[in-house]
Amino acid sequence: MKPYEDFLRAKVQMAKQIGFDITDADIHPILKPHQRQIVRWAVAGGRRAIFCAFGLGKTVIQLEAVRITRARAGGMGLIVIPLGVRQEFIRDASMLGIKIKFVRRIEECDDSEGIYLTNYETVRDGKLDPRLFSVASLDEAACLRGFGGTKTFREFMALFAGDDRRDMSQRIRGREVEYRFVATATPSPNEYIELLAYCAFLGVMDVSQAKTRFFKRNSEKADQLTLMPNREHEFWLWMASWALFVQKPSDLGCSDAGYELPPLDVRWHEVESAQQRVFDSIGQGQMFAQEAIGIVEAAREKRNSLPARLAKLLELRAENPGAHRLLWHDLEDERRELERAIPGLTTVYGAQDTDIREAAVIAFNDGQIQELASKPVLLGSGCNLQRHCHWAIFMGIGFKFADVIQAIHRLQRFLQEHPVRIDFIYTTAERSVRREFERKWQQHKEMTEKMAEIIRKYGLSAAAMAEVLTRKMGVERVEVRGQDYIIANNDCVEETRGMDSNSIGLVLSSIPFAAQYEYSANYADFGGTDGNEHFFQQMDYLTPELLRVLQPGRLAAIHVKDRIVPGGLNGMGFQTVYPFHVDVIQHFQKHGFAYMGMKTIVTDVVRENNQTYRLGWSEQCKDASKMSFGLPEYLLLFRKPPSSTEKSYADVPVVKEKPFSLDVDGNRIPFDRNAPMVTSTGYSRARWQLDAHGFTRSSGDRLLGPEDLEGLSHADIFQLFKRFSLETVYDFEHHVMIGEHLEARGKLPSDFMLLQTQSWHPDVWADITRMRTLNTMQAAKKAEQHICPLPLDIVDRAIAQWSMKGEWVYDPFGGLMTVPYRAIAQGRRGRAAELNPAYFLDGATYCKAAEREMSVPTLFDLEALDQEQEAMA
């Protein structure tokens, strides 16, 4: 057992240290105590994120960390900065005695051991290859906030991490920047994707692995992450091993003298929404303007309400015409109106030359310019604008929380001598936008406080944090049994090891899809692995045990699905498919199972696109070469070799009785339709044909026309089209025409596929009801739903075909106990293991209900109820 325990213990991960141990003597004496601690921690780690509140000295910390690391590693150092902060770095570097130079091309780097500054645009556009440097730091690394979706993010991941798999004839293939830092004052703890992007850039953990380990993902929407409650503390401990959140010096045990944030006076000004007539997607006019929620709606509202918001801004300016002010806006139309209404206003915008923009920022910071207008996304990061200014007016509420909060803290920061006033102008239609912004702001404060509390409690010791997590190893076995079932809250490896050899008639399970999801906080969870290879290493402890407990000659039916690999992770810039089912086949064969084939289960392509965003209609129209297919699920069939190979029968064959008839004397005779008594019980020839790859078709009366669908509900349309599709010769163009007719009338849903392609072939199960799972009952009880529920249809068919009454059917990954629940219903006995205690307890309820033959409603009952209510209405 010890090798397995060692395997689980090795799952406890803290960020590795690849840097250099230094002392205070190695650090410039001008740095304050909290700054020296941060520099020591960052240099020792080698790849670290520095999240320090505004005014704590993030610039000098980066400069000193890069200087020391470069001195020990050799080579050149690079600091990538936003526009407008060049002079601050040059000023602080001069104070530290560090010689730095701003460059835009590698040819300008004239010292092979120097430290250089450049802008993000320079790296993104390929003018400067960062892999020529030994150490690099990203200041205000906003480019990583666009994880997976922006050119800047893809370029930076490829260049810094050496993962560019495209043609790099002009680049250094395979090389990476060894030592990397990121620094920002406002990471967004409420935007987990951003934090995971920092993690990926630093090479701490793969994004998909981190998602699996800590988050409960929305299985119907991509990148909607919810931190698992039982993993929250572990997540922040892990974060603290590579990312340092410091809100004030006392977080590190230092004095807060001189580090008090000035008061923040936030004032909200609501103006009336522009009452323009709005039409929805099917042309219906709306009497009242709706609250703007999405980016498109918010942008439309900003344009429509521009005159009212400008009037309010001018009214606020009139309170103190001579004050130094920042005017923040989001749209180019807003900038042009500000320039028209305020003669002499200095504006900074994207089309300007870089040097002109930076000169304007410097002049404003030096007090030479009274008012400066720009977008938070352009000028909100990095600049210290507090010297002569403590008032900012936002012409609207920005689309992105991080950009707005950054812009606020250009003024509210340590060493600001005045209270800071912030005015937000918004319309009545933007009330929901204001509520969402305030919610994120509050969550941001709470999350940063959690990180600061961890640092105050454990210091900067990753070892102390890891020890806390190691104590979570193991699980205390809990068993619930009835007359026809045994289920255990236990590690499935330990549970299977404790079972008798040759005791199971059928192994039926939906195994974890490698590192796709994590189902519990326990380190025995198979989803909590570092990747595909690591997952199969843990399966190496389970699969031999499954072979041992299975009766000779019997089957293991394993439900799987292939996985999508994001373009940002495969280095290709577009999504690809990991053929997980292929590796599962090879894995089971390696452990002595014989591969017998697979069933293909059709899935809903529309639902899948909502989960992955890789099959989009719009993207198909832009470039069909990016388009792939919806991924089916598979039921893989494996057999344990029987003891005797003479006839290849199982030691205990799965026997099915054929239908029979009775003669006049009551004796059984072969099935005869004309016999005095005919019984249809037993395994029929018709069912055998379907199980044995036969085809079945029934005739239809006529083609289905669009007029047949008028006035029908989605459920009726689905059933009618299914029957039509299976009863007539398939016509692809006719299929498309029906869908287009429904779309024109607003009847084609966007969240599921109404007109699914049907199949007659038994190896393709197109009629699996995707939502007919035990999650239906979970939702009704408002209980925790399973991440990947196993459809009942798959389980029912497998149990009926490959087991006999009274036999044990075993699922090592029991989940909500779908397999034992359905096994009991079909006269078998069910057995399962489940690590998640919440799933286990709910599953125990279902097994008990099945054994008592209680009526548990299914989705079909709910559909029938809906149709009955519609009929009554």
From TrEMBL:
GO terms for molecular function: DNA binding; N-methyltransferase activity. It comes from the Bacteria. Residues 506-839 form the DNA methylase N-4/N-6 domain. One of its GO terms (biological process) is methylation. InterPro entries: DNA_methylase_N4/N6, P-loop_NTPase, SAM-dependent_MTases_sf. Pfam families: N6_N4_Mtase. The keyword Hydrolase does not apply. Keywords: Methyltransferase, Transferase. This is DNA methylase N-4. The lineage of its organism: Bacteria, Pseudomonadati, Pseudomonadota, Betaproteobacteria, Burkholderiales.
